[in-house]
């Protein structure tokens, strides 16, 4: 248990997230408690120079003198808020690193979008070397991750250089159904078998929202379309035909640069469905094994085996898809570096155009978290070696990093990276991370992000997650359509 006691001092989230990186799984309280193993006390002290944030850290308990240790530091607050925050995190990082013996590859960076730092600096005229030095010095980031950050930023800038953010937008369509719920999943998804009778009502409601969105956005250019979920291919071919034909009738797709569908689960993919996707202009799909080891697939609740992954991939090639992504998750229960090596060996033989490498994130709603006592977690060092394997295989396959993000409660506090051949990157993935363009989400559980450049802010709007409630809301909201 870690106690965070802040008296007239901000940065609670930054402090807590840095502790979480060093002490995963700990409970946090905000009051004095003798049971707390670590007590962080921070307070503002004003003086003629502007004041300081005074910090005291107590490790262990007064009742256990051999384990008791006390640390103290202060940070001047006359600098900018950003400078104060960075100095606070650097000093705290050094103390926690000393007490745990751990050096975090990303240093003090705890945010979701570290690449934005590099992109913003490059767009402001800083050289690659200056950006690299800044990331390592200001955030204590290791050389390997700093280079990954810069390489990804360079590719993002190249990919997006000709896109008019202000006059364009992207569309996300959510299909909240799956063949079954995976052990690690916390996304908005429901077993398709339970929604068979109301599936058509959901599609009708979704089409109604799409029609409204098309009218609302008619004066802007649609740059990318992404259909995700859930598993969109849990719908039947005729359902996909209904949805995609409506989409084509509502929207002007002349300016669409990419049309992606998260085909996802191999056990939901059929040749008939793939032909429907191809018919309506889908040019990028994902066939997601997560692992190419049968024992792991059984553990996490996937209803397919390794041969079914290969068969689904072959069907996609037969249907004419020349841009196929495959998702992999590192740190799955029971997997070690040898298992990951096998997964990438099999993927290399298939030769997809892109691979997205995720580190397992224990979300609160996932069964893997609520039942974690049943599963052995993967050690920090093991995840690090798995990332090394994935990076080397992707490099050997000619795949370069083009987008990167981080999640809370991720195995080893590492990152998720999208690797791709040049020209096969997913623009939507970059847009959702960099938040430079408006993205409208349609469907249950989707989120819209409205970029307001003149005010340098983003407005978010979320749809309800429950499909039945979504259907009712859409009926009420768009009665006149």
Q: Could you describe the 3D structure shown?
A:
There is one protein chain. By secondary structure, this protein is α/β, with parallel strands linked by helices. It has two domains: 102 residues, Double Stranded RNA Binding Domain (2-Layer Sandwich), CATH 3.30.160; 309 residues, tm_1862 like domain (pyruvate-formate lyase- activating enzyme, Alpha-Beta Horseshoe), CATH 3.80.30.20. The protein is built from 15 helices and 18 strands. The strands form four sheets. The protein has a nine-stranded mixed beta sheet, sandwiched between helices. A five-stranded mixed beta sheet has the order 2-1-3-4-5, covered by helices on one side. A two-stranded parallel sheet has the order 7-8. Helix 7 links the parallel strand 9 and strand 10. Helix 11 runs parallel beside helix 13. The longest helix is centred in the N-terminal third of the chain and has 20 residues. The radius of gyration is 24 Å and the shape is globular.
């Amino acid at each position: 248990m870690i106690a965070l006691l802040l008296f007239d001092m901000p940065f609670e989230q930054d402090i807590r997230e840095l502790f979480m990186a060093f002490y995963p799984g700990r409970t946090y309280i905000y009051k004095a408690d003798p049971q707390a193993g670590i007590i962080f006390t921070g307070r503002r002290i004003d003086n003629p120079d502007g004041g300081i944030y005074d910090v005291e850290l107590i490790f262990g308990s007064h009742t256990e003198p051999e384990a008791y240790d006390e640390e103290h530091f202060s940070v001047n607050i006359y600098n900018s808020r950003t400078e104060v925050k960075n100095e606070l995190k650097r000093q705290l990082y050094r103390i926690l690193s000393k007490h745990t013996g751990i050096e975090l590859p990303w240093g003090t960076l705890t945010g979701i979008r570290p690449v934005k730092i590099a992109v913003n600096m490059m767009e402001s005229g800083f050289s690659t070397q200056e950006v690299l030095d800044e990331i390592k010095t200001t955030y204590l980031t290791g050389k390997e991750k700093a280079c990954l950050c810069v390489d990804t930023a360079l590719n993002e800038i190249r990919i997006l250089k000709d896109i008019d953010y202000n006059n364009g937008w992207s569309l996300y369509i959510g299909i909240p159904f799956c063949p079954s719920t995976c052990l690690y999943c916390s996304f908005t998804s429901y077993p398709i078998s339970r929604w068979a009778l109301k599936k058509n009502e959901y599609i009708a409601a979704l089409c109604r929202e799409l029609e409204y969105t098309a009218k609302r956005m008619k004066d802007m250019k649609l740059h990318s379309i992404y259909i995700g979920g859930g598993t969109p291919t849990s719908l039947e071919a005729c359902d996909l035909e209904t949805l995609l034909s409506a989409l084509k009738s509502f929207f002007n797709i002349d300016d669409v640069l990419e049309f992606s569908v998260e085909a996802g689960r191999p056990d939901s993919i059929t040749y008939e469905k793939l032909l429907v996707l191809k018919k309506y202009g889908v040019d990028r799909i994902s066939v997601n094994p997560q692992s190419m080891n049968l024992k792991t697939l059984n553990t996490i609740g996937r209803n397919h085996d390794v041969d079914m992954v290969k068969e689904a991939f072959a069907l996609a090639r037969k249907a004419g898809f020349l841009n196929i992504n495959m998702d992999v998750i590192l740190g799955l229960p029971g997997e070690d570096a040898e298992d990951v090596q096998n997964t990438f060996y099999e993927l290399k033989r298939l030769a997809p155009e892109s691979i997205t490498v995720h580190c397992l994130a224990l979300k609160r709603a996932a069964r893997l978290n609520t039942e974690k006592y049943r599963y052995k977690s993967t050690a920090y060092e093991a995840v690090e070696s798995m990332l090394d394997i994935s990076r080397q295989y992707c490099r050997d396959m000619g795949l370069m990093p083009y987008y990167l993000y981080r999640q809370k409660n991720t195995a080893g506090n590492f990152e998720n990276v999208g690797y791709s051949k040049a020209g096969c990157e997913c623009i939507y993935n970059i847009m959702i991370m960099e938040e430079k363009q408006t993205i409208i989400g349609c469907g249950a559980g989707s989120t819209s992000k409205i970029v307001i450049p003149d005010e340098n802010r983003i407005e978010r709007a979320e749809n309800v997650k429950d499909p039945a409630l979504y259907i009712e809301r859409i009926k009420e909201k768009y009665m006149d359509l």
